[in-house]
Amino acid sequence: MKKKSRTVRTFGIMVANPKQRKYVLRKYLARKAAHVRLFCFTPSEIDWKRKSILGLHHSNWKWVQHRFPFPEVVYNRCYTTKKTTIQKLEATIGSNKCFNQQNRFDKYEIYKLLSQSLAPYLPETVPYDRETTAQLQKAHKVLYMKPCYGYQGKGVYRVEARESGEIHIGQHYLLPQFIAANVPQCQTKLDELLGSTDYLIQQGVHLQQWNDQVFDIRALVQKDESGVWSVTNVVSRFAHKGCFNTSICTKICLSEEVLRHLYPQEKADVFLQTIRDISLRAAETVESGTGLRLGELSVDFALDNDERLWIIEVNGRPQKELYDQLFGQDAVYKRPLQYADYLYTH
Where does the ATP-grasp domain lie (predicted)? Predict the structure, then answer.
């Protein structure tokens, strides 16, 4: 008696532009289940009148463009603040069939959400203005100016008040690009650098270092085949020497390796468990607070010289390229497809 085959399920991955389609699709095709048909598309390739999508597909060992009916589930990999396209798709395929509806977060809005339950792990963070900058500079000495919708450390400035009265302003590196003689001069320079972009001020954290390199701790939190948040991995990025931006990194490794180098195994394991617990709470808080259907996010931590953990930021579209350098990280790509399978049946 022949075994009954599973129904073929069609999932779509939405990306920002055609150049990304093949690169993204290749990563997920290698990890998909046999009963899943996968294609990649951009918002401009949706034909709303015909309710079809011109997407890239891999068939018979070839990359081909094919016109598909709307998929059963959509996984959004467009890094955007707009929800218009997702809302239109949901109107057709169902309100619970698209995930990562919006994945470019306002950092200050996320801070306010997290502060309701995770305040002890958050550095002081407020919207940027001249008066507040001067006040916080006295309290913390080191501040970070971050664009509310920034990513990969772009547009981030480090502002350090020195004992001499000088204020050093740097981008990416600890060495200053600009040295202000006093507070008014610093404020004038910051106004020039930040322009009309919405910025926030974040309290500086004195980071622990390994081999004179700053490192962070990133927990990747994804929903699994049961639709439940779980921590896929915890990794660390090492910045170049003299650099504070870990997005410009020289090395990536599992954080377990770093923590067990710095601490006895038992203490390192406690840190890792705390990181996992906080990350899960952060994911649940962000999803419930925003009302978005999310499938993954990453939580970035800093470990200071007093052995205190701080949540530096939450990213709505984790960089998957990080994990390609590490062995045995297939779950990074499998989990979104497993979650899509879950949404198909619920």
Answer: 111-345
